[in-house]
Specification:
Largest sheet: 6 strands, mixed
Strand content: 5-15%
Number of strands: 15
Radius of gyration: 28 Å
Number of domains: 3
Number of helices: 17
Distance between the termini: 49 Å
Amino acid sequence: MTSTISTTFTTPTSLKDRLFECLPAGRYALAGLLRLLDVVETDTVPTAAVECHAQPRLLVNPAFVARHAATPEKLMMLVLHEIHHVLLGHTRRLSGPTPTDNFVFDAVINALLCRMFPQPGYTALFRDFYADDAFPACLLRPPEGWDPRVRVVPVPPALEARGMGPARQVYQSLYSPEGASYEDVRHVLRAFLARREKALRGVPLLGNHEGEPDLSSASAGAFAQGVADIVRHWPAPPDPVKGTSLQDLLRDSRLQVHRPPGARRLLRDLISRVARGGAEQRSVRRWVPAPLAVETPIPVPDRRATTCRALGLTPLLYRGEVPALQRLPVQERVHVYVDVSGSMEGIKGPLYGAVLDCQALVHPQVHLFSTEVAEVTPAQMRAGLCRSTGGTDIQCVTRHMARHRVRRAVVLTDGYVGQAGPVGADVLRAARLGVGYLGEYPDERALSPYADACVRLPIQA
């Protein structure tokens, strides 16, 4: 690997100027991130933090920068570390994260950033800040002499002791193409730290993990969406890493489901239009079972008759059904893809309710999408189960449609889903597609060119 020689900042400039000086070293659009943030120098945070208010702020401690991030590469990695907490949804996943949660998040983010920028000048922030002979701090830094192109990952001295085999395996997975997930790191902490909460409080972490401000989920989602639009052009790790890329951070949460009456009718109409197909198919009909309600003297299970008997009366007629057929237009159940990304916070619950109201027209499995597609049943939706990575990418939908040969689909989204790409565009054009837009300011540019029917649903945060 080619070594990167770093130099410290030589002139006393503002912190924002120093961040812009990182650009030649980073060689990518960090400027786009800085346009989203107001950079504030403050000693109210120990290292750095992102506040997701109406005007997002990047809070940076100048004393920490002078001592631990004095090179452009180190400063850039510090800023990216904080931004990734927002991008990966850590600010919205948990209310009151524990020291274990904070440690696990940092271990995953540090490994991801090291794979994105593996040159020694960048990884030096973590190597210099954390010791490799102390457990569990060694999990937060890459090994000495680490080269991502070499599949054998060196083991830090703290993990060479006898009995540390499981910890070594997880550590090597973090910095190898195999990858390690949040739960893998959490399992190691449970196994090797009897009083892990107390032990982890002694490990200094990058960012403001104590007394963090109350973040608005809507603001965090909007900021994360803006960051996501920029990081699509960042250098990707050489191999996808389980649990550390946006595509693999699928987490469960629970929603409060309620049913907005205004959206129900519009969504049912949209799904019906997609299900019936084009005008040339509307005349195609088929016979379907349609039992007829009749009254008969033959005793059958009937609530009214049961009540009469309980009152000492003898019913003369019973309500029953006789089999019959009805000729109805051909109509397929529609595959519904529900956007559950971070930008949809606050409107997922009523959206669930609207979909459940149209259950008879919907495929038995509803497809939740963020950067992955997750299947849920109507029963799971009624229970409020949500599975999301926090990010969003319409290409996971087009891959799912192609793999399962979906011919009729309805996508429910605020429109901030990225670009379908050439292959995805062909998939969307080949299907009969309906799009339901939600939120106060939906973006209709990405999907409307491929849609056979569109509607604005009156569901807002």
